[in-house]
Model the fold of this input.
Amino acid sequence: MYDGPGELAPLSDVVATALGRKERDDPVLPVAGGPAGNALLTSWLGLVLLVLFFLEGLTLLDVRGLITWHVALGALLVPPALAKTATTGWRIARYYSGQPEYRTAGPPPVVLRLLGPLVVLTTLLLLASGVLLILLGEESSRHSIIDVLGMRLDWVGLHKSVFWAWFVAMTAHVLARTLPALRLVIRRHGVPGISYRTAALALSLVVAAGAAVWLVGIEGSWSHGRSGGRDFDHGGIARVH
Done:
């Protein structure tokens, strides 16, 4: 039963945030920028991840043919994703530990607070399972990890299942967060700590490049079979013809 506009307040808060009509007032502190600096770094990392995930998504059109790019982009995603998890985790820790400036800035809308852990969990599981597939190799990745009552799941199937859960959560997250992040990066200037933020972003990208080179160097069992009888579906998972 609908009891009035109060029931729609959480959804209205999300829409207002997504459209940039409602913004948190992040205090600015010296040296690293405080909540304002944290928000900027999180936005930088989020936009970098958005571009990389988009490019990774393009490889799903032909994962077998583009397997090297799929692996390289997947590896590039890991360090920025961990860095963004760290910046949001820092903000959460400072808020709940009672740090005044973070308490003043306040939390995000309740719907986004509930969505956030799901986005983080599925993102880390997706990337971790993808790295695991490369480390195991194609043959070992197809070994069953669950086989009950005719229901069989291997490591490849697990990666695919995580992908769809991630896709749903990330779509909602992108819709809610992309415009605010762009507005913040474009409009917020003069916040102390730009050298720290630049160094953090650069470090994550350097580590990402190293991870990409390493994983591409060991993904041979997948690329060697690219002309064989198996290819990949839109979840990045192989199937047998």
